């Protein structure tokens, strides 16, 4: 499948909101780090402590932090940033204000250094917000419906995404299942599958589905 990027190096982001279980939150942070997420946006989740600075020892399991123990040092050293918001609208506004790519103007120059035309009316691409949800409009993850840098938002463990969450999404992806088991996957498992696929897409890898060896 062709890999069409409007960004030279598309980046993944993760939005954590309306997640009930602490272990799922920890797992989401750790899985995000495993697949190249360097910024996580947290909306609400007021009972959760994401402050890495109040842990005297990253190996102290009695710490009040809800961060994965293995992640505390990395967050302290700036390898990952967690940004908190009270409201979803504030989070969305912030995401849409960010550059879609780290060096957007340089990428324009790379396309055609001799014919750069800047217009105040030209619309720059924005980071897409994609919900991972079973919905009639959802696109199969195997089709890689990505355009550029993307912030992925997961649904609640029991109820899925709220109407408010869905209203701010630019689109949705679903994960195909081939067995006769549960209709829904654990939220952190689903996040891992989506981020893994995005990682390969962002590198231009060809992922073969259904090939038997």
Give the SSE layout.
Elements: E1 12-17, H1 22-34, E2 39-43, H2 69-76, E3 81-85, H3 88-97, H4 104-111, E4 128-132, E5 139-140, E6 150-154, H5 163-167, E7 171-174, H6 187-203
Parallel strand pairs: 1-2, 1-6, 2-3, 4-6, 4-7, 5-7
Helix pairs in contact: 1-6
Q: Would you mind describing this structure in some detail?
A:
This is tRNA/rRNA methyltransferase SpoU type domain-containing protein. This protein has 213 residues and is an alpha/beta fold. It is 29% helix and 15% strand. A 7-stranded parallel sheet has the order 3-2-1-6-4-7-5, with helices on both faces. β1, α1 and β2 form a beta-alpha-beta unit. The chain is globular. The model is unreliable at 57-62 and 104-121 (pLDDT under 50).
Radius of gyration: 18 Å
- The fold-level CATH name is Alpha/beta knot
Structural class: alpha/beta
> Topology as H/E string?
EHEHEHHEEEHEH
Distance between the termini: 21 Å
Mean pLDDT: 78
Which class in CATH terms?
Answer: Alpha Beta
CATH architecture heading:
3-Layer(aba) Sandwich
Form type = globular
Helix content: 25-40%
What is the strand arrangement across the widest sheet?
A: 3-2-1-6-4-7-5
Low confidence ranges: 57-62, 104-121
**Continuous helix count:** 6
- CATH superfamily label: SPOUT methyltransferase, trefoil knot domain
Protein name: tRNA/rRNA methyltransferase SpoU type domain-containing protein
GO biological process, one term: RNA processing
Keywords: Methyltransferase, Transferase
Domain tRNA/rRNA methyltransferase SpoU type: 118-196
């Amino acid at each position: 499948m062709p890999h069409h990027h409007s960004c030279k190096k598309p980046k993944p982001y993760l939005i954590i909101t309306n997640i009930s279980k602490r272990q799922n939150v920890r797992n989401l942070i750790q899985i995000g780090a495993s697949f190249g997420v360097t910024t996580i946006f947290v909306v609400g989740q007021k009972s959760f402590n994401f402050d890495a600075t109040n842990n005297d020892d990253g190996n102290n399991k009695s710490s009040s932090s809800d961060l994965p123990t293995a992640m505390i040092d990395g967050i302290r050293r700036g390898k990952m940033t967690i940004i908190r918001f009270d409201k979803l609208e504030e989070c969305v506004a912030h995401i849409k204000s960010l550059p879609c790519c780290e060096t957007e103007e340089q990428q324009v120059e790379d396309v055609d250094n001799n014919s750069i035309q800047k217009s105040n009316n030209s619309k720059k691409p924005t980071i897409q917000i994609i919900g991972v949800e079973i919905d009639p409009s959802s696109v199969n993850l195997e089709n890689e419906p990505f355009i550029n840098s993307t912030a992925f938002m997961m649904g609640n463990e029991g109820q899925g995404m709220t109407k408010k969450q869905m209203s701010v999404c630019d689109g949705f992806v679903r994960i195909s299942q081939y067995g006769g088991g549960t209709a829904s996957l654990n939220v952190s498992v689903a996040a891992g599958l989506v981020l893994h696929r995005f990682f390969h897409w962002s590198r231009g890898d060809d992922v073969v589905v259904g090939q038997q060896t």
